[in-house]
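Hi all, long-time lurker, first post. I run a small reading group and we've been trying to get comfortable going from sequence to structure in the token notation. Rather than ask abstract questions, I figured I'd post a concrete chain and ask someone more experienced to write out its structure so we can walk through it together at our next meeting. Sequence below, copied exactly:
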Amino acid sequence: MKIVERNAGQKIDYELRGTRLSFADGELTIDLARYQQDDPVMRDIMVDGEGYLTNGRGRYYAAQVEIPAKEYEEIPAENEGDEAERRALPLDTDDVTLYLFSIEGIHLA
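-- Answer (accepted) --
Happy to help. Here is the structure in token form:
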């Protein structure tokens, strides 16, 4: 996973295990493979007004996760005249980018 710090200051803690990305000691966990689509996907990790992490809407940015588009392999048809099959490859987390924002002064619940 590529890490990009968007600004200076303290960042939220995170941990990647397989395709699961957890923030703040597991307060919020997202399965990156679940969100992968045919086009790149950007997920916002935010802090709401009460200090809870949310996946989407909130008051302050903590992080953004850019998940690359699915890649496919083509499996040749077994019989002549049959169509080849396309199979999605597993998510390669090395291609995921995590953008981190400063959370200094933001109270996490």
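A couple of things your group might point at:
The chain has one helix and ten strands.
The chain has a mean pLDDT of 94.
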